[in-house]
Amino acid sequence: MKVTRIELQPGVWLTAVQTKKFKSSVLGARFLTPLTAETAACNALIPMVLRRGTQSHPDLESISAVLDELYGGSLEPVVRKKGETQCVGFVGSFLDDAYTLEKEKILEPAVALLAELIGNPYTQNGTFCPEYTKQEKANLTDQIRAQVNDKQQYAQMRVVAEMCAGEPFGVDKLGSEPAVEAITHQSLWDGYQNLLREARVELYYCGSADPDRVQAAFGPLLAVLPKDGNRTGLIRPAKKKAPKQPRRVEEALDVTQGKLSMGFRTNTDAWDEQYPALALINAIYGGTTTSKLFMNVREKLSLCYYASSGLMKYKDVMLVSSGVEFDKVGQAEAEILSQLYKCQTGDFSDDELEWARRSVVSTLRTTLDNQSRLEDYWLGQGAAGLTEGPDELAERVEAVTRAQVVEAAQDLTLDTVYFLKGRE
Amino acid sequence: MVSKQYPRLGETVFHEILENGLHIYVDRRRNFQKSYAFFATNYGGMDMRFHQDGRWKDTPAGVAHFLEHKMFDTKDGNALQDLAANGASPNAFTSSALTGYYFESTEKFFDNLKILLSFVSVPYFTEESVDKEQGIIGQEIRMVEDDPDNQVFYALMECLYDHHPIRVPIAGTQASIAKITAGTLYSCHKAFYNPANMVLTVAGDVDPEQVCAIAKEILPNESLPQIDRDYGGEEDSNAACGEKELTMEVSTPIFQLGFKCDPAQRGEAWLQRELTGELACEALLGSSSPLYAKLYSQGLINKNFGYGFELYPGCALMVAGGESRDPRAVRDAVLAEGERLAQEGIDPDLFQRLKKGVYGAKVRGLNSFEFTCISMAQSHFAGVDYFRFPELFDGITKETVEDGIRRWVTAQRCGLAVVRPGEGKA
């Protein structure tokens, strides 16, 4: 597997991963901008409206027809959050040329369609079509409202919003309902022009083609990006300290099982030398099925159906989430904190440390076997301006000492506790 | 071992049948870091009534899933931890038709394979551990009861089926799992976890001969006869009832629309039916179909709209669903489109494109070791070689697909389940 990173134009980067392992090739074109409450909804809506039609393929049916001809390829709008950077654009997956029935080439026509979606949208009177804008606004609003449907994810989103209120990280990647409501086809068009000119661009390819062919294939896409743009630089989120007394938020919805989400400050993010130690303590604490939270809170005490922890790689935040009976929430929280105390006092066995290390290393190495995880990994690194691959990060994890892990644990401080309970 | 090449897919699969009746399939994948092993029994949520020791036995809903949870217990502790300690990511799932145990690992593959084969074949339950598990699974059932997607799916199954056990939730209910004892688990394990009723599928850069050698070493040698199951007799071809509605705390109505199709015979007919069903879904309401574009632009469906064809012993169905402000309008439009296609046929150009699209998606599906291993196992239980799909696919004509739509997409075979927004459950 060969990874090439090239700056094709100022602020326009291509990551090309060459490998023959997969049956498909993955393509991506993402615009990177600072996450703000003012622009999040508009940016999120842009790829959704772009996906509706181009000048030569003005509706969904005609775009689908092209994709079907390309052996059922996909090109889907994506909206992601990497630290305090919002990433919007398209990611697609296509059959690799080796498996086509008539040995047709797929890469070039696929990039051509991608360039068309981004650079030649279907317009009416010089702006986005009002009808498409209206429909996609309704879809985005539905998507924002639907976040409450998955209670586990909802509780995680809510604890982040409470904990990071006032920080860009507290802004949801989809924006807010009122912000969506305020968008017009004209304001959306203006936002799109800004994105084209000012956003940093991350292009991506993973498949059997060599980097020269990939670079040439992306030609039509470069042609639609303005050259006079002054593209934004990289953003590293600020770190914060937890309040002396943790914030507490409760909310009642119609649920039969409670959801407890706890937000911690870590004092460490992906840019830091000690990030691998943080990744390890997270795994020891709640990141795996051998972790303290899984073994004790779930298995030994049967306090809940799940209890786990996870890191926000590009922000100094760790979340613990758990599903508990309403009347056991106090007990669960106390146990979650007592397990953290064990991590902070070095009360974990060498076995626990090595199991955690094997799990973190294995997750990183298998990233190389999975095209969509790999695409997401390199997008995160691109947004952060970091160049370390998953295998290199794995090597650093191998070298972390017990003392470094305990040090990372001692930096964890509880910031906000969110509990989703049932209605009385 | 016998090796077979599949040039259209670029794959080589090694196959062996052990004396105890176990089939082993190894799809050798070079240059991958990880390897994946899937050990499955042909026993799932719907196998509740079966013939054992000379009589028919009825077991509570949820035994297969309960067993799946308890199998990880070993005399010395817990196999999940043993596998995780080796850096493997183990897990298991229970579907209506099978229970599968698997792990993915980048190191110590053969050690992990030994652990997998051993904990699944050696039962170890105590009344105490069964009691405790009732608490954990009880929580899981409650969590699922808050999940509108799950609730709407079972409501649809109740719409479509009169008695087929596909309508019973796989995990059971709080009441049904309360009836499960260590004795129930031992007897179901004995009935269904014998090698002749199981399959082992592997994908990765591993030596196939060594996989066989380990299976011979760990698993019992004797072979037991197949167990007969009873799904309550053939279902009527029409849906049991047209509509069901629930109320939950959701933002927009969530729906599942289903059509009861004819069940398939084992063997190549099974895979042919599956491919026909998938193409019928694509032609009727797939993302390239005229109907999809119409419903999307009318705001009746959104990006969450999904669809598929599902095939189980004794039942088959087309399902489509997602969020909609007016699920009945979606149903009526699908029925009208079905009628149109039955009369006018599918546009020949569209059909050719759909075939190309579905073919590409199926080949790309093999990127996933998990998908590959599960598909090989499911197809094995259905009596067909999954990797034959390119050849079988070539033979599926427009007429076959139109015939399926004509037979299945009718008001009599249709069911609609809806979860409407509101407080409290209906």
Which characteristics define this entry?
heterodimer, A: 424 residues, alpha+beta, Cytochrome Bc1 Complex, Chain A, domain 1, 2 domains, five-stranded mixed beta sheet, B: 426 residues, seven-stranded mixed beta sheet, 15 helices, globular
How would you describe the overall organization of this protein?
The complex is a heterodimer of chains A (424) and B (426). Chain A has 16 helices and 13 strands. Chain A starts with a strand and ends with a strand. Chain A has two domains: 2-223, Metalloenzyme, LuxS/M16 peptidase-like (Cytochrome Bc1 Complex, Chain A, domain 1, 2-Layer Sandwich), CATH 3.30.830; 247-422, Metalloenzyme, LuxS/M16 peptidase-like (Cytochrome Bc1 Complex, Chain A, domain 1). In chain A, helix 10 (275-287) crosses helix 13. The longest helix of chain A is centred in the C-terminal third of the chain and has 18 residues, at 350-367. The radius of gyration of chain A is 23 Å and the shape is globular. In chain A, a hairpin with a 2-residue loop joins strand 1 and strand 2. Chain A is an alpha+beta fold and 424 residues long. In chain A, the strands form three sheets. A six-stranded mixed β-sheet of chain A has the order 1-2-8-3-5-4, with helices on both faces. A five-stranded mixed β-sheet of chain A has the order 9-13-10-12-11, sandwiched between helices. Helix content of chain A is 43%, strand content 24%. By secondary structure, chain B is an alpha+beta fold. Chain B has 15 helices and 16 strands. Chain B has helices at 63-71, 79-85, 109-121, 127-145, 148-160, 174-178, 182-192, 208-218, 268-285, 290-297, 327-344, 348-365, 369-381, 389-394, 398-408; strands spanning 2-6, 11-17, 23-28, 35-41, 49-52, 55-58, 73-74, 77-78, 89-94, 99-105, 198-204, 243-248, 254-261, 306-312, 315-323, 414-421. In chain B, a hairpin with a 2-residue loop joins strand 5 (49-52) and strand 6 (55-58). The model of chain B has no long low-confidence stretch (mean pLDDT 94). In chain B, helix 9 (268-285) crosses helix 15 (398-408) and helix 11 packs across helix 15 (398-408). In chain B, the strands form four sheets. Chain B has a seven-stranded mixed β-sheet, with helices on both faces. Chain B has a five-stranded mixed β-sheet with strand order 12-16-13-15-14, sandwiched between helices. In chain B, strands 5-6 form a two-stranded antiparallel sheet.
